[in-house]
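Figure 6 in text form: structure in, sequence out.
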């Protein structure tokens, strides 16, 4: 169909995404310990460049709360000048991973690990941004932020000072966000709560002596390419390790978001390797501009889908609107109080801690996935992001223990034109997930599928989640999926939605 037919839908959706993205781009930058304009530059690159070449057409890319903690620690320990070289290297790693078609392996990361990582990040964002509500900078670690929170709250006095005004603005911003999302009129359902909260907080702050966002008069002036001497830091093992950590975590979060976006619409499915290459180019450009790292982000992406975007034009235009706004109206941004942006991030952080996902894991798969989720969460909060992820992946290996005698999975395919037959023989674990996922994704759209699971001995929770999502997506598109010979948990995979 001609793209012009969808122009109106994409134009409307791009404005909605722009309104969602603006406060998040600035808030995530501040939570990362860098100036607000760094997040805006990443949002512009994520929209205009990555939006044009992404493997997930309706996914929106930009600065992500999931990387705020690791960036904060890098800037604190290495200095802001190290961020550019780290992102250039991380972008190259992502691009090469996409070229060598490693995107499918990121789908093999346990959902318990990914959601535990996001929950840990959510806790760290909440306890860090809690101090921003008082016009104070976060402390160096999550545990220090947590320990200092009661004193910060009980230190409020009856004498109205800047700290008390800032806290009141933050609370009002949170209340405005939540109230709008619960009671907004149907005609204005696409107006994001974050924007409403920031507007309310900004109006309440007029005339008050509180900390406000600082942005340069020109966005071009905010671009800070790394120096030649900074690039020599690639020889530093800690810089190389940081680049690998960002590449890994950004890729996992991007592809998790892309999979979630695929569930929301019936359009083109994600090409994971193309998406990985696009993210690599985006992070390479962010490194050259001295900006924040980017990922595919679920909040902006879901807003894009809900606003009925039809093509990648919506994501690209939202980047154009950010660029136009910061170029023409930077003085508007300097009126926003820091406490209002901190409040937006507090709400974002709370929503990352999905206890609902943990209860779903326990109900469907037992205690071990919940242990993986909780251990990842706690380790992220008490140590660091990469250690938490590695602990989670290490615990995931325990799921292999009962199946050590038979870890292989054989997949046989046959097609007669009207239907597609797949036979599974062995054990489906995260080790064999890329092969299984690739086989399922090759099934032509609209084709009825028969899966013979009589020789399938067991399925771990990572493969089970992938299979269940695939069954639901095929059935939603009108195709028939029939499972024969399945026993126990395997037989229930296609029966219900969690």
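Output sequence:
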């Amino acid at each position: 169909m001609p793209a012009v037919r969808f122009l109106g839908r994409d134009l409307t959706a791009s404005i909605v995404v722009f309104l969602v993205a603006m406060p998040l781009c600035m808030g995530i930058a501040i939570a990362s310990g860098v100036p607000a304009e760094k997040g805006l530059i990443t949002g512009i690159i994520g929209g205009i460049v990555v939006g044009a070449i992404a493997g997930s057409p309706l996914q929106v890319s930009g600065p992500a709360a999931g990387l705020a903690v690791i960036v904060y620690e890098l800037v604190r320990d290495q200095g802001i000048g190290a961020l550019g070289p780290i992102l250039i290297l991380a972008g190259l790693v992502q691009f090469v991973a996409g070229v060598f078609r490693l995107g499918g392996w990121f789908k093999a990361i346990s959902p318990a690990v990914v959601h535990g990582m996001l929950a840990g990040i959510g806790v760290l964002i909440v306890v860090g941004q809690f101090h921003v509500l008082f016009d104070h900078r976060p402390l160096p670690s999550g545990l220090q932020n947590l320990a200092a929170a009661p004193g910060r709250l009980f230190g409020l006095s009856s004498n109205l000072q800047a700290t008390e005004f800032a806290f009141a603005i933050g609370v009002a911003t949170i209340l405005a966000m939540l109230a709008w999302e619960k009671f907004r009129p149907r005609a204005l359902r696409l107006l994001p709560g974050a924007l409403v909260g920031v507007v309310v907080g900004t109006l309440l702050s007029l005339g008050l002596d509180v900390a406000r966002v600082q942005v340069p008069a020109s966005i071009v002036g905010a671009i800070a390419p790394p120096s030649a001497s900074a690039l020599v830091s690639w020889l530093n093992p800690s810089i190389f390790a940081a680049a690998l950590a960002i590449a890994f975590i950004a890729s996992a979060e991007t592809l998790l978001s892309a999979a979630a976006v695929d569930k929301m619409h019936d359009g083109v499915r994600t090409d994971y390797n193309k998406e990985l290459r696009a993210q690599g180019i985006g992070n390479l450009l962010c490194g050259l501009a001295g900006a924040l790292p980017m990922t595919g982000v679920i909040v902006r992406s879901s807003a894009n889908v809900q606003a009925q975007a039809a093509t990648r034009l919506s994501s690209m235009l939202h980047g154009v609107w950010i660029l136009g706004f910061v170029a023409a109206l930077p003085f508007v941004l300097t009126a926003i109080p820091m406490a209002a942006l901190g409040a937006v991030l507090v709400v974002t952080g709370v929503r990352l801690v999905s206890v609902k996902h943990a209860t779903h894991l326990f109900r469907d798969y037992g205690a071990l996935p919940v242990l993986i989720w909780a251990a990842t969460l706690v380790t992220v909060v008490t140590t660091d992001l990469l250690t938490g992820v590695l602990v989670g992946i290490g615990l995931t290996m325990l799921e292999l223990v009962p199946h050590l005698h038979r870890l292989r999975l054989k997949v046989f395919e046959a097609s007669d034109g009207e239907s597609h037959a797949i036979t599974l023989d062995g054990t489906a674990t995260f080790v064999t997930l890329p092969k299984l996922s690739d086989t399922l994704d090759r099934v032509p759209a609209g084709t009825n599928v028969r899966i013979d699971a009589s020789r399938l001995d067991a399925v771990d929770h990572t493969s089970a989640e992938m299979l269940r999502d695939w069954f639901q997506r095929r059935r939603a598109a009108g195709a028939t999926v029939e499972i024969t010979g399945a026993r126990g948990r395997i037989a229930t995979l296609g029966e219900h939605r969690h």
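Caption detail: The mean pLDDT is 88.
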